[in-house]
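SEVERITY: medium
COMPONENT: batch folding queue
REPORTER: lab tech (J.R.)

DESCRIPTION
The queue accepted two submissions in a row. Attaching both inputs and their returned structure tokens so the on-call engineer can compare them side by side.

ATTACHMENT 1
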Amino acid sequence: MRFMFVGDSMTIGRAGDITWRYRMWQHLTASLDGPFEIVGPRTELYDTDAGAPLSYAYGAPDFPAPARRHLSGWGEGWLHMAPLIGDAVTESAADVLLVSLGLIDLGFYTDSAQTSANARTFVTEARKANPAIRMVLLPVIPNIRAESDAPFAAEVARFNELLAKAIADLDHPSSPLLLASHPPTYDIHQDTYDGTHPSASGEHKLAAAFADAMHQGWGLGGAYGGR
């Protein structure tokens, strides 16, 4: 089974980060009965000094190079990933997409309706590449801008409603979709280092959201035990 992480700055991570991708790889290693592979066209972390994804300095030295693969980018969202996902799935033969996107879109590029339309396009393009692909999609989680900007918070809430509707509309037995739950105890003052990007505890909570969704929805792996 091949898993691909798709996300923005919270998923790619910056130089020196451990990343929630590492926590998820640990979970899959411990809980899956059969072999699996992490796939994707990128392996880099974001170098904040260079302002580009040029770093390979992961904070977890035991994170093997093949498991560092992903399709994530600092400042990239549904708008950017929808045109890329078809080729990425084709080239990697991905079976499961673990997707965390939306904050960047709403913050800089598109409103909730446009962002939802791009999410639907993403699903369509992924299925063109693999009609049996599975996807777990995470709503936009709490962040510091939503705490202080009421109109932005309203757009986040609206997008999350539209994402849930899109998943209900597009779910199909041959290519199932799951909506991961908001991490129930996620606290931006404890689980992030800047109000948005996850700290160690936040990384575990993001990994748990995906792991528990797959365990409960598909019986895949176990409940997350790495907190």
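ATTACHMENT 2
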Amino acid sequence: MATTKTKDDKRITDLQVRNLKGKISEPADKDQKRGFGTLLFERRPSGIVEAYYRQRVNGKDVSLKLGTYKSNPRAAGMTVSQIRDKANEYAAIAAERGDVKAFIEEQEAAAALKRAERQRLAEIEASRGSFGELFLDYIESRRQKATAGVVKELERLYQTNMLKPHPCIMAMKARDIRPDHILDILNPIWERGAKVQAERMRSFLSAAFNHGLRAENAVGRANAKSYNLENNPATVVAVEKVSAPATRALSDAELRHFWETIESTEGVGPVMALLFKFVISTGGQRIFNVCQTTWDDYDLEAGTVRLIHRKGRGGQTMSRPHLVPLSPRAVAIMERVREINGCHPWPWTTTGKQHIVVSSPRHAVADWLSSEHAVIEEKQIPSFSPRDLRRTCTQLMQRHGISDQLSDLLQAHGQTGVANLHYRNNPEAALPEKKRAIELFDRALAGVLGETSAQIGNVVTLKSRRGK
């Protein structure tokens, strides 16, 4: 219903604007009070009618464009009513604040500051690393400290236990991770029966968050990601301890049977079989440390091999050499290996391209256990792992009266600590005691293998070899 315009009503009509030739104005205030600015319509030479709010400030006219008049329903622009509403808003500002243009400029400047602050916070938020990025950052931090095998295992655990089953959790910001997210990762591992892995996984997750808490304040850090962590959500998650001390050791009969048949086992190559015999002959050295050696580590004339131990938190940065004396039995084994692999950098290789990997000895033992050889007096020999050969040698020394001190020295047990790091750090200084240990061990091993006194007497001792 159209409103009736009184003679005192100075509001401009749509018809007036549509037929406008030059300019026309009305008070900008909604009650048409004067002193709060003017609403001005002006037709341009192009035929377009533009609307302005005009205010007199300090004796000068100041104009603010309100918009373009919409001449028909399909045209762009604003209706007279819409333009008037905007002019009314400016008049209200004039009544309260005075200079409308100055007020609008202040508002725009404040809005620009807010936009800049939002942009800054968004950039900070974008730079904050995700949970996945935190764990990968942790892996990179271990690359120069841990062994290549440890790093590879961390990468495998990340793919199988974190990224593939939980991509959404991995994409979350690290600072937003809560204990329930850690449980979401660990529970499936536990439920599939991998309880030891669940415990190790929790330790790795805790270590990753500890790394993140320290990393942002580290000088010279390469990764620009920040995590803004306030706590470690993995520390409050408890995983039941399920690991128990391993006790499997081969009996004398089992050890002798393994020694006599491993070279004739289908699926076990000659180098792998000799690796087991060499590990046993050296008093149970760590099998993977032996696998990593090159020919340069062996001095068969002097009867020694140099192993590098990287066990413990120090990893590669705390690696320590372990000089192991070789019995004539062990030297004879190495001479056989040299006939096979003397042309390769590593004695213990089946491809010539790399040394034997850690999983291969396990598979070889499994092949032997599933063969016809793993039977004594019609009874299946209980399962064991390559690591159990080390324990077998330890207990063999114990049973034959070799002191724990000599046994530990030969197997490099307990060779850490301040005194060993700073004082007892010359591998050659301990060699005479180790040679005594290996001679005593070899006599015990000869007894287990059923070698006769004549056979033992025909073996040239290390001492007589040195005298040549």
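NOTES FROM REPORTER
Residues 100-127 form the longest helix (28 residues).
No errors were logged for either attachment.
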